[in-house]
Every structure is written in structure tokens, then in C-alpha cells.
Design goal:
Blueprint: E1 8-19, E2 22-34, E3 39-43, H1 50-58, E4 65-70, E5 73-74, E6 82-85, H2 97-109, H3 115-128, H4 144-157, E7 162-166, H5 174-191, E8 194-199, H6 202-208, E9 211-215, E10 223-228, H7 237-240, H8 244-260
Parallel strand pairs: 3-8, 3-9, 6-7, 7-8
Antiparallel strand pairs: 1-2, 1-4, 4-5, 9-10
Helix pairs in contact: 2-3, 2-4, 3-4, 6-8
The structure holds adenosine-5'-diphosphate and magnesium ion (MG).
Length: 269
């Protein structure tokens, strides 16, 4: 039996790196359960360990202590049930948008489905992010926002159990970012995906999250506080601006980040 309230389990995770100056503990004693269908954001100052934690869930790295599970199974490496979207989209520039998505679809479903079915999946994923019209364009011919949409389409096309995103909108201008946040809200409403997303944007975290996981500053960063965002969905950014629950959540995150975890800029070594 899979316990839906513990779809992802993180138990006593430590991540240390070997560096020329010795052992560096990036994360320590991280404990978190993510429920099926939940939207979690990880927020914290630059360098605190957000990407390190996401990479552990993605299975791109293994912890130096503790364990991570997805659907009751230990996470031992990357897998199509945990699709990752990075900030810099990582599309293959010589392939069209269609081909970039098709490649992922093929990897997951080629063994069991016909070419027509694979093409239909690819078309559906591009339609989901509103990019049907750009299917035959190459990454060099489309905007940054569109490239990020292709990255999201590619991830969703694999029908992952969990969508992992590392600052997916971080490199976009404010208006494009807002548009993609709204689109992501609508997509997740439709797909009921379980999402863990890294961000350093307070408004983005409050708008999207069921819970906001706030990390303390490193080294040896850990979860400082977890905030539930009890705002009903569907959420509308214009109406939210004055919603007391929104204002309260936003203030709680800002308090954590700028009062309790006021960032001390490290002098470059
Ligand atoms: N492979 C690595 N080797 C050594 N140190 C690392 C490695 N990856 C990350 N770090 C260090 O771990 C800390 C957390 O990094 P990261 O997870 O990238 O932070 P964030 O994503 O929150 O900005 C930083 O101090 C970073 O320098
Ligand atoms: Mg990062």
C-alpha cells in the first residue's frame, strides 16, 4: 500500500561534498514528506542547498546520510517517474520543439506504444503548454519563455509521478514569468501532478504552493519552517493580491528570509 500522504519521503538526509578545503556539509538532517498531488516549493537564500535537495529527489546524487523514497521505493537514480525541469531548459538546439519532446516520449513509451501514439503524446504535451503552433521551430527561433514551455512539455510528456523544477522561471522577465506561473497553475490543476519546485521568489512560492518549505542558510542547512498556504484553488493572482491569507503567507516567508535568516553575503574565496 502506498501512503498518499507520504508520496515522497525524506529521512534524516545529509549531503556533504568533498572539496579541496575538506568536507563541506551542504545539508543536514533534512526530513520531509510530500503528499501525492501536493505542490511544494523550496525557498531559501542563494547557496543554501535548494538545488542540492532537488537533485537528491531527482536521484542525480545520493545522500551521504539518510534516505529518500518515492512511492515506497528508495530513490537510487534518475527515473522517468521523476521528471526534472532546469532553469536553462537544456533543449537540443538542432532538433525542433516537437523532436525535443518526442525524444523524451520515445524513451519512456517506445517499448509499448506505436509511433502514432508517441506522436499523439508529443502533440498533446505541446498543446498543454500552448505551443502547438511552434512545434516545427528550433530552440534558436523561439523566446526564452517558449523554451521553458518546451522544457515543461517535455517533462510532462513522460507522465511523471513527480515534477521537479529548479528555478524554472528564474531567467525570465517578470511578465513572462507571471504568465508561465499562471499556465503552470492551470496545468497542475488539470494533471494533479506532485510538484517540488525550487524558487527564491516569495510571490511565486505563495501563488503556487500548498506548502512552502523554508531552508536555513548553509553550511549545514536544514528545513527551518514549513508554511501551509491555505488559499483555495483555482487561484487568481489579481484577486490574491488583497487576500488576507495571501498577505499573511507572504509576510511569514519574508520574515523568515529577511529577519530570521538574514543573508550574510559570503566573500568569494
Ligand atoms: N558538487 C559540489 N561540490 C562542492 N560543493 C557544492 C557542490 N554542489 C553544491 N555545493 C555547495 O553546496 C551549497 C548549496 O548549493 P546549492 O544547492 O547549489 O544552493 P542553492 O540552489 O540553494 O543556491 C553551496 O555552498 C554550494 O557551493
Ligand atoms: Mg540552485
Amino acid at each position: 500500500m502506498i501512503d498518499d500522504t507520504k508520496y515522497i519521503e525524506i529521512h534524516g538526509v545529509e549531503q556533504a561534498f568533498k572539496t579541496p578545503k575538506g568536507r563541506f556539509v551542504a545539508l543536514r538532517d533534512v526530513n520531509l514528506n510530500v503528499a501525492k498531488g501536493e505542490f511544494i516549493t523550496l525557498i531559501g537564500h542563494s547557496g543554501c542547498g535548494k538545488s542540492t535537495l532537488l537533485n537528491l529527489i531527482a536521484g542525480l546524487t545520493t545522500p551521504t546520510q539518510g534516505s529518500l523514497l518515492c512511492a515506497n521505493k528508495e530513490i537510487k537514480g534518475p527515473g522517468p517517474e521523476r521528471a526534472v525541469v532546469f532553469q536553462n531548459h537544456s533543449l537540443l538546439p538542432w532538433l525542433t520543439c516537437f523532436e525535443n519532446v518526442y525524444l523524451a516520449v520515445e524513451r519512456v513509451f517506445a517499448a509499448t506504444e506505436s509511433k502514432a501514439q508517441l506522436r499523439a503524446r508529443t502533440d498533446a504535451a505541446l498543446a498543454l503548454v500552448g505551443l502547438s503552433h511552434a512545434a516545427q521551430k528550433r530552440p534558436g527561433e523561439i523566446s526564452g519563455g517558449m523554451k521553458q514551455r518546451v522544457g515543461i512539455a517535455r517533462a510532462l510528456s513522460m507522465e511523471p509521478k513527480v515534477l521537479l523544477m529548479d528555478e524554472p522561471f528564474g531567467a525570465l522577465d517578470a511578465l513572462t514569468r507571471a504568465k508561465l506561473q499562471d499556465e503552470l497553475l492551470a496545468i497542475v490543476q488539470k494533471t494533479h501532478s506532485t510538484v517540488v519546485m525550487v524558487t527564491h521568489d516569495v510571490d511565486e512560492a505563495v501563488l503556487l504552493s500548498d506548502r512552502i518549505v523554508m531552508l536555513t542558510n548553509g553550511p549545514a542547512a536544514t528545513i527551518g519552517e514549513v508554511l501551509s498556504v491555505d488559499i483555495p484553488r483555482p487561484r487568481n493572482r489579481v484577486e490574491l493580491a488583497e487576500d488576507p491569507a495571501y498577505v499573511h503567507a507572504r509576510k511569514a516567508v519574508i520574515d523568515f528570509l529577511y529577519t530570521r535568516q538574514a543573508h550574510v553575503e559570503k566573500v568569494a574565496a
